[in-house]
Amino acid sequence: MTGPAVEFWFEFASTYSYIAAARIESEARRCGISVDWHPFLLGPIFSAQGWSDSPFNIYPAKGRYMWRDMERLCDKFSLPFRRPSEFPRNGLLAARVASLEGTERWRAEFVRAVYRANFAEDRCISEVGVISEILVSLRQDAQSLIASANSAKNKERLRRQTERASHLGIFGAPTIVAGGELFWGNDRLEDALEFCGQAFGRRSRP
Questions:
Q1: For residues 186 and 113, what is the distance between their CA atoms, to the nearest angstrom?
Q2: Distance, CA of 182 to chain centre
Q3: Model's pTM, two decimal places?
Q4: pLDDT tens digit sequence for 65-97
Q5: Can you say whether the dihedral through the CA atoms of 89, 188, 134, 140 is positive or negative?
Q6: CB atoms closer than 10 angstroms to residue 168
């Protein structure tokens, strides 16, 4: 029987996903839980809710709170943070790379590196050069991977992934799916892991 696992749904433009992505593997490992990484795009989901921009831009008071909250949380978890000069940034290329089959071994490290580039280094993650540098730093063939990421087959894979997020009821990032339930936000990470462990225990009983 396989062990307990959670699905970690993230978007590269999402501020709180940066913090959750930095934390989730170590927290899950401590609980004996594995993590399945699922990139998706918030744009289509926001459009379905009638938004053409991030709610943190649509509602300035909410945005001001979020940026200060990010400063506090990054300080709490000892994460580097620099408010990006552009928000939200287009993470489409990065999401396509993270969606590629056969990248499971280094996917989490790639995701964290992209988040650092965006939210700690204020680099434009929509640029091919930035993503290429990250891939090279991970000792990957950047040119080949980017070509594969931009293939019609992989574009369709990311589109289906985003559709699945919508069907699951996901409306924001990060979202953790644990034991068939949704937990939205970095601040629900520990709750999701606890619920997953409890749900797996129930399923494992004879």
A1: 18
A2: 15
A3: 0.94
A4: 999 999 999 999 999 999 999 999 999 999 999
A5: negative
A6: 16
64, amino acid identity:
R
Cis peptide before 60 (omega within 30 of 0): no
Q: Is there a contact between 131 and 146 (Cβ–Cβ < 8 Å)?
A: yes
CATH number, domain at 100?
3.40.30.10
Q: Name the E strands within 1-160.
A: 5-10, 34-39
Residues spanned by the domain of 62: 5-204
CA distance 171 to 61: 20
pLDDT score recorded for residue 105? 95
Number of domains in the chain: 1
- Positive or negative: CA dihedral 97, 100, 102, 105: positive
